[in-house]
């Protein structure tokens, strides 16, 4: 935890300060269902380390983001949406529609998704 992360809701979930059932956990990542699902499957893949957004990424965190994507794919397989397809979304900043200031990837699927997004 650091100064930015003490009140961060995703830090609280990742560090078990909130009782949220996890779909996945390892030493670096947690995943849990979105509280307001946009589709039948909607899981958030969140690093335990507090990074505010994609703008905080560097070469040093590239492996972590790769792991988040592989985790999303594994969860999609577990949820049975792997073959039909799904969408991975990483919103960044105000115009990107980011509401929670802790980097996360949305795994969304279980129905046909429209493109382009609004
Ligand atoms: P974004 O707009 O990309 O920042 O996405 C934030 C997502 O976090 C939204 O889809 C919210 O529904 C979801 N969310 C916010 N608070 C919680 C929570 N306590 N548990 C699960 N999902 C949450
Ligand atoms: Zn955080």
Structural class by helix and strand composition: alpha+beta
What is the CATH class name?
A: Alpha Beta
- CATH homologous superfamily placement: HIT-like
- CATH fold naming: HIT family, subunit A
Bound small molecules, which ones? adenosine monophosphate, zinc ion
**How many structural domains can be distinguished in the coordinates?**
1
- The total of helices stands at 3
Give the ordered list of helices and strands. HEEEHEHE
- Poorly predicted tracts of residues: none
Total beta strand runs: 5
Rg of Cα set: 14 Å
**End-to-end CA span:** 34 Å
Q: What labels describe this entry?
A:
single chain, 118 residues, alpha+beta, HIT family, subunit A, 5-stranded antiparallel beta sheet, 3 helices, 5 strands, globular, binds adenosine monophosphate, binds zinc ion
What topology does this entry show?
Blueprint: H1 9-14, E1 24-25, E2 29-33, E3 41-47, H2 62-78, E4 86-89, H3 93-96, E5 105-109
Antiparallel strand pairs: 1-2, 2-3, 3-5, 4-5
The chain binds adenosine monophosphate (AMP) and zinc ion.
Protein architecture, described:
By secondary structure, this protein is an alpha+beta fold. The chain has a single domain (3-109), classed as HIT family, subunit A (2-Layer Sandwich). Helix content is 23%, strand content 19%. It contains 3 helices and 5 strands, in the order H-E-E-E-H-E-H-E. Strands 1-2-3-5-4 form a 5-stranded antiparallel sheet. Strand 2 (29-33) and strand 3 form a beta hairpin. The longest helix has 17 residues, at 62-78. The structure holds adenosine monophosphate and zinc ion. Zinc ion (ZN) binds at residues 5, 8, 10-11, 50, 102.
């Amino acid at each position: 935890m650091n100064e930015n992360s003490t009140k961060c809701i995703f830090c609280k979930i990742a560090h078990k300060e909130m009782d949220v059932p996890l779909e996945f956990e390892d030493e670096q990542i947690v995943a849990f269902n979105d509280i307001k699902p946009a589709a039948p499957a909607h899981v958030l893949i969140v690093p335990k380390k507090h990074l505010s957004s994609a703008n905080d990424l560097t070469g040093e965190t590239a492996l972590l983001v790769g792991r988040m994507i592989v985790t999303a794919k594994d969860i999609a397989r577990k949820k049975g949406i792997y073959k039909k397809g799904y969408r991975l979304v990483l919103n960044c900043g105000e115009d990107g529609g980011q509401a929670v200031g802790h980097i996360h990837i949305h795994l969304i699927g279980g129905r046909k998704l429209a493109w382009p997004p609004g």
